[in-house]
TrEMBL record, chains A, B:
Gene Ontology MF terms: catalytic activity; FAD binding
Residues of the FAD-binding PCMH-type domain: 42-224
Protein name: FAD-binding oxidoreductase
Stated family: Belongs to the FAD-binding oxidoreductase/transferase type 4 family.
Cofactor list: FAD
SUPFAM superfamilies: FAD-binding/transporter-associated domain-like, FAD-linked oxidases, C-terminal domain
Superkingdom of origin: Bacteria
Amino acid sequence: MSVSPSLSASLIERFAAIVGTGNALTEPSDTQGFTQEHRDLYHASTPLVLRPGTTQEVAKILKLATETGTAIIPQGGNTGLTGGQVPLADGPPAIILSLTRMNRILDIDAVGGTMTVEAGVVLQTIQEAAEKVGKLFPLSLGAEGSCQIGGNLSTNAGGTAVLAYGNTRQLCLGLEVVLPTGEVWTALRKLKKDNTGYDLRDLFIGAEGTLGVITAAVLKLFPMPAGRQVAIAGMKSPEGALELFRRAEALAGGGLTAFELMARIGVEFTARHIDGVRDPFAEPHGWYALIEISSNLSEEAARDQMEHLLSAALEDGIAEDAVLAQNETQARDFWHMREALSWAQKPEGGSIKHDISVPVAAIPTFLAQAEPLVQEVVPGARIVAFGHLGDGNIHYNISQPVGADREAFLAHWDAVSAKVHALALSFGGSISAEHGIGQMKRDELAAIRAPIEIDLMQRIKAAFDPAGIMNPGKVLRTR
Amino acid sequence: MSVSPSLSASLIERFAAIVGTGNALTEPSDTQGFTQEHRDLYHASTPLVLRPGTTQEVAKILKLATETGTAIIPQGGNTGLTGGQVPLADGPPAIILSLTRMNRILDIDAVGGTMTVEAGVVLQTIQEAAEKVGKLFPLSLGAEGSCQIGGNLSTNAGGTAVLAYGNTRQLCLGLEVVLPTGEVWTALRKLKKDNTGYDLRDLFIGAEGTLGVITAAVLKLFPMPAGRQVAIAGMKSPEGALELFRRAEALAGGGLTAFELMARIGVEFTARHIDGVRDPFAEPHGWYALIEISSNLSEEAARDQMEHLLSAALEDGIAEDAVLAQNETQARDFWHMREALSWAQKPEGGSIKHDISVPVAAIPTFLAQAEPLVQEVVPGARIVAFGHLGDGNIHYNISQPVGADREAFLAHWDAVSAKVHALALSFGGSISAEHGIGQMKRDELAAIRAPIEIDLMQRIKAAFDPAGIMNPGKVLRTR
């Protein structure tokens, strides 16, 4: 590691000169918004936040960083959940490079189905811009109002539309990346097929800013479905939800645009704490599925499929109850409940959160086996499991026992995680399905993977970032 | 480059001992089937063909190769079109590592939708095994009866189903790879989502055997559509075909499982030379589209969509004529015509072939502008353009003028290619949409890409294969 132990005033000045002093923040009151993240898990400061306005400024910053061995942390909307975008408490002083000012939509090609954007464009802005030209940009997640596409790409973000459209990696055709040396790789390509050498694009996507800074991207746009139907079904068990998912997939194929699972307690939490959410049924059910079916043909075609699915599921006793959103407002309300699940845990005290995936068919068994493991560590812990059943991806979140001490509960995080992750791995699963590694899961990743896999990643890291300046200590240990 | 200038008898013996002498071929009469490829463009011999039966044998071979600086060329079904799988005429002596004996299907999980296979399984065998459990493995291409999945993965093969299902990269969940050092990276994962570190899988996919040897893979299986309809439409122009494609896509969405374009002359060639193919219409048309629509619901639903598409296209004057396959036999005949196009060029003399892609909307303009450029170099050349219009990928093939000398015509390959590729690039296109780089396009790739891009690839190559033994001189120049 050649990262310098401290950042001198003169070095800060040289960096600041690149972006102009107005875009170089050093006061703790100014930088705090960039170092604090939503979960309040990481607490470290930065001597400098830089807010470049152009790719050329980013290039100059990285060139100077490599020359001086200065650590750089790229940051988008600061919504990451594994601490990838904030400083390490035990790391070298690191500059936060905020892409927020690079927020231009450079091109929309409705005919070709592409949008070219700078890294700092907020996801919701992209969704809305696509809609304006009658297209769909399907990436959708809770933080869409503030997360930025550069961060989505760097973490290969998932969300609720992965089932039909894939994760962020599948939604990207081309990239512009500034390398640690300050060189710019411009590959803003719009091609569906291009087999010309190594897949550099997919290497930068999901690298969490450790190999370079994504400054722009070409995104895929999709036809806006002609019709969309949203429903909620109540079931006794995850087995029922899995069977309903299989039927929905067989019926709607690629038209099944979401299939989300929610435990009863999550529905209770949202009804209790979130404005505008109410229990969708008179009677409680053990588990709930939010189902979205889209059709390229018509609203009626989507409704026909949904009604067929639900009435058969009720008849066959797979679902105990089901309700189809009667209009767009109700559909939004259903989605609001699902999206608010994580927030609804806050008023209930501390939460220990997981982002595991297993093969889809293993989800019921995983859920059945995980709960006693957790209860063994924290008796009375409340399992608020929910997530993307169709992707095999469950946010296995755990709220503290009623009345317990928050900090004492959170002190069990590692012990609980160890059990939950070991169980997921026993199914051939993942410890991070969509949130990435960041600083939170770095050492765990190294522990669960064969040395050769970590070594290959380290070789790539060393080849792309020999000075070790790019988000050091994230994903991989510095060496 | 540390590759040794010659292969001694004792070294050949050491390699042969790993697989057993019966699986080590040295006689030219035995090795010739591995060095000659379909297009007969490359002519170089090998001192040794090794046919390992296990991953462990592959590992031992690569370890010894790295220790002794011996070049290794991995080979599947030897159907590659850019010379990636055969020796370089000006390269070091290189061992061909044939994966043919590693042809076991290791696991089929119909419920989870995965199949785990060794690299040497023939594509058609995989398709048939999927079908037996009621599933679809969609990868489909002309060579499917002999190409192997390891080669498909290493070249990120495309084919006719990319439109709906993606190329080989999108069809793979996990890999087992033997590294040049002999270490084995085992990542036969079955997860839909897994954000844990750099995307090594997609780096090996499409690397054409230059970073390691893919020995096994987990493939995605899809629901078998309930119904499938195939039709051929005749049109005046590529513009008409593009408009028909847009309508088909809007109507069928992900159910549009193929949209292939064919120039009139290609239809003539197949009717003339291929058994069982006849002109689908009484009158000739300038261009033809083969359209396939699949439905998860029923045969009727697919037929309804196809009939709706075709009748509207006829009414609106977009198609001049159209015919829907009346049964499975006729559907297969239509596909046979499309798949035989490349072969039907053989009896017409020499052909210069291209595999370009451009943004879909640019295809008519590309076709209009390319022809005069070709005619300028070779007056009377016959343009047999066809391919995956929906992917923006055209096989811009050129048959020699009637009565011309084959060799004299082929001598124009580079001059013609330079013009065709420059035109594709002017649309932001690719010089190799699905066939890869191999030896054929290596220097051209280096010439058209920014130095930083080639340099990044070289850094990866050096990091993974420091001894430079893996398929040296393919994709990238050795350095």
